[in-house]
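Recall the central idea of this unit: under ordinary conditions, the amino acid sequence of a chain determines the structure it adopts. In this exercise we apply that idea directly, starting from the sequence alone.
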Amino acid sequence: MTQKFIPYQQKELTKEEQETNSENFYQLLDQRRSIREFSDRPVDIKIIENIVKAASTAPSGAHKQPWTFCVISNPEIKKQIRDAAEIEEKENYSKRMSDRWIEDLEPFGTNWEKPFIEIAPYIIVVFKRAHETIDGEKRNNYYVNESVGIACGMLISAIHNAGLVTLTHTPSPMNFLTKVLNRPENERAYLLLPVGYAANDAEVPDIHRKSLNEVMVRYD
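Accordingly, the structure predicted from this sequence is:
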């Protein structure tokens, strides 16, 4: 079937507007930090819905949109997730992670305990959809990891833009999330993000991002 096409429309900006917008967006995102101390202050679900809608505008292979965003506020489910995540994380810190990995994490004070899973008003668990089943037929999705990774980046940006904070958490392995959330067999847990406000006494490491010269190479 041939896809219908429609004219593309976008407001054209002046050079000055482009420069201002790009600088303002950079300054906004440069304030983003990963937060581990959360407040239990409520967040309106409409804000979360807008954040997920923004993330779901991400490009994807063949426009398959191979993602599911599970939004959890139920305290009992959050406790189940925390309990299961801490079992895996305790195993990671005590056996699975290399000495170098533990050494690299030491300055940040991380450990296997994950109280933010219960404290934050929302948990968003992103699942990647390996394939779809339509009318009993298995149909592949394409560039799934890349597509979902881009969507997660846009999700994190949308969270920050809304004046909220988050943390990327990947308790490995994450198979328990499929079971706790009763997801279908074609979905695989990709990322867990607590979403809410930072605690009043939250602190972040005094670190700095790489300079432009360290991350960009020009070919003029």
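The chain has one domain: 35-199.
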